[in-house]
Here is the input.
Amino acid sequence: MPEPNEQRARGVFAGAPALDQLVGYVAFLLRSRLWLQIVVGMALGIGVGLALSPTGGALVEPRTADMIGLWLAMPGHVFLALIQMIVIPLVVCSIVLGIASSEDLSYLRRIGVRVLPYFVMTTTVAVAIGAVLALTIEPGQYIDPQVVRATMANASAVAAPASPEIGGPLPEQLVGLIPTNPLSAALDQSMLQIVVFAMLIGVALVSIEPERAKPLLDLIGSIQQLSMEIVGWAMVLAPFAVFGLLSQITMKVGLAAIVGMGVYVGTVLLGLALLLVFYLTVLTVVRGRDARGFLAKVKEVQLLAFSTSSSAAVMPLSIRAAEDQLGVRPSVAQFIVPLGATINMDGTALYQVVAAVFLTQVFGVDLSTGALLLLVATTVGASIGSPSTPGVGIVILATILQSIGVPPSGIALIIGVDRILDMSRTALNVTGDLVACAVMDRWLPDRPTTLDAEPVSQQT
Here is the structure.
């Protein structure tokens, strides 16, 4: 059955000529369907980017094309800047409210017992899929040695990403999760420290008397509502952001880089597809949901994640989709989505292990069983707490390569196609968070709360 707005739209154009009716109905769809606006923006962005790229005809001079690309991408950078501006208060407020709504510490323990092992399990499965595919397909054997030599000769021209400081003894790393200065953690955008800070605040609010906690919870709820209002403003720019960002990306990358690394790109995409099948299987077994119906409900979130390459950018939309489209309780969605966007990077973990094995094959590094197990453990650990921002996977990869004897400069070989893979793995990361919401909503006991009675989607 068509929706009421859709019926009215058809009625308005019923008496018009066929062409006018079609144009009017398409205009209505574009106004009312964010996912369709994003698809149109993606298609137009890729088309414009190919037309302006050196490999696609180069309608203008390269310098002019670069300047056009900067202007086209400006709405996208404004969109990302607005989201990044508000993401920290939104993460803190969502986690605090999600924990505080549980009302008692025993319920929090039940959440932790289920959520954390689930995230570790899915990340381990993702890494295993990537390792098996990379060792079976051996994409590194399809690379021309001349291409490797030429790339390494020009590696100095590629800006080496700064490796995150994740070393040091394990006890020091664990202590470092507690932010001694929360403001400094916010300035450094250390999302894992921010999540730990928010969780501690939420647990403390549950532990004190309700009348003492209520004023602060009301303030945090107001900040969350304010954050979602700003997010609503940013979403107006989403289709234009998608168009501009994809135009600039396609203009710079072109088709040649993707074709030259086809087997490697195909291996990563195949792994992500298998990971998606795993997600849908878990969802079907636990919730009995139809996989096709689930994908139809979350397509807007997936498309926006694919276009922006940022889990943080789509986090508000993920919360809304979990509550409105999947029927997840707000207390569950507002806790798991921000947490998952920080520590549940399954798509990124899969990509990192495929890329690392690929580079060992390219450079002839012997990957023993022990080294492979070290690679798996390092990838799982490095993917937890990595920032949910574009390009972070290539940064984490630099550290992983050092642990298995591959020169970090080998990143120059894959950096040309990384943006395409970054977009794809981000879409899987977000999908994994939504599946986790649906699964945890089924596994966690049903406890109606004030927060459940007033979902965040109704506040915006």
About this structure: Residues 55-459 form a domain with the Proton glutamate symport protein fold (CATH 1.10.3860.10). The CA atoms of residues 9 and 28 lie 7 Å apart. DSSP finds 24 helices and no strands in the chain.
